[in-house]
Amino acid sequence: MDWLLTDSEGIVAFWLLIFVVCNGLRGAYCWFRDSGQRRIVDELLVGDLHPVRASYLLGGMAEAAQTAVCVLVDDGVVKVSSTGELRSTHRGRKQTDPALRALAEAIRGTPANAATKLYEIADEARFARFRELVERESPAVRTTASGRSLTLMLAASVLTATGMGLHGGLAEVPVPFVPEADRMVWLYVSGAAWLVQWGPACLWPSEKRRRWKALDACCRQETEFARAVLPEHTRHRIALNRERPKPPPPAPRPARKRTRDWSDAVGDGVDVDSCGSCGGCGGGCGGE
């Protein structure tokens, strides 16, 4: 133990060991924390996942809305125009899925002089029941990784590298592997140790990385299968209104013309030189 705390090479090994322990503890924590999630994912892979819920897990409410509309169009409940507008046919198959039934009722309740756009389903209030049912009936699976692991391990690499430099400087031990060098070289040693630790720390997944590749492949397959029953031109029409159009830019304000002040105009008409030569305007020509 004394070698790890008092020897120069031992100090380097001690702080690198601390970094390894931090990674191991974080890995064990994530393993036990995600045991329930892994069990749910395994059940989904062997079970029958509804295409709307599969689309929601794959890409959120926008994907779920698009798949749901494809199912309703295939069932004859909804028709789509050439510009992507959705209208109820007031016929078709009766929907047994609660979320699809709620969506069909919301589209049917649209006024006759209006039409539903795909992007409206994801955020407008009249489709709140559909969104609520999709979220409630979807499996409680976190599809992306936790960003804390990456942040924590990057912070651990900085702290252990800094601790290594401070430990070596305060212990007044020679620089490892080059004992004749100045002790300030410990700063370079700690910097090199940080670079060594930075690589493994970056291997931890960020919060944008998908966690379950097998589940993503299964959801993608279910989504594509549900949409593939429609002709390609129909799918293209539905997707025309997937994104809400951006509002037009505000019109430029007309430039205001600056009006000259009346006092400025009067001042411009007074001949200053003549006033000075006559002894002032108020005295007339008495200055002569």
What percentage of amino acids are in beta strands?
A: under 5%
As a whole number of angstroms, the C-alpha radius of gyration is 36 Å
The helix content is 55-70%
What value does the average pLDDT take? Answer: 83
Helix-strand sequence: HHHHHEEHHHHHHHHH
- Count every helix, treating DSSP H or I runs of 4 or more residues as helices: 14
Widest β-sheet, arrangement of strands:
1-2
Low-confidence stretches: 274-278, 284-288
- Structural class of the secondary elements? mainly alpha
Q: What's the total count of β strands? A: 2
Q: Report on the biggest sheet.
A: 2 strands, antiparallel
Shape: elongated
N-end to C-end Cα span: 111 Å
